[in-house]
Amino acid sequence: MAAKILIVTGDAAESLEVLYPFQRLREEGYDVHIAAPARKKLQFVVHDFEPGFDTYTEKPGYTWPADLAFSEVDPGQYVALVIPGGRAPEYLRGDPELRKILKSFFDADKPVAQICHGPLLTAAIGSLAGRRVTAYPALEIDMQAAGATFQDAEAVVDGTLVSARAWPDHSGWMREFLTVLRAKAPVT
User: Which CATH class is domain 4-185?
Assistant: First the structure.
């Protein structure tokens, strides 16, 4: 049986930040599940940059079914966690079931990959204090407020935590995450 990896997300997650790791990790032989507040079809979004805008724009993206609700997740069955960005982390960080899941992965020192606004979730449970991370650059102040040292880099590895700024950094992010996974939770 293949090792399982959990992706936690919700509506308004960045399409590429969910589907790229989902497919890349499956390609490596991992069994990947997507969890959300409820089992339902999720509506992802596409963030892009348009001339004349000071920040990114948002358009409807792909839809994808959640495999299970946060309340159904047994973190002990998963070897690693992926936290995509987009706007989902903004409202998910207060979800008590998700907070328990996140805490379980950090308490067990399991590999965690976070990208873009995903670190808002790990900040919400106090798991960034004393760590080096990157995130969407506009979150630098949030990362510092959470006690982390922010680095504006394609991918930052701090122990079993691998972070990236946004979807243009996917290849570096997944390359570093797979290095951690192969050492800590190889495909069986």
Answer: alpha beta
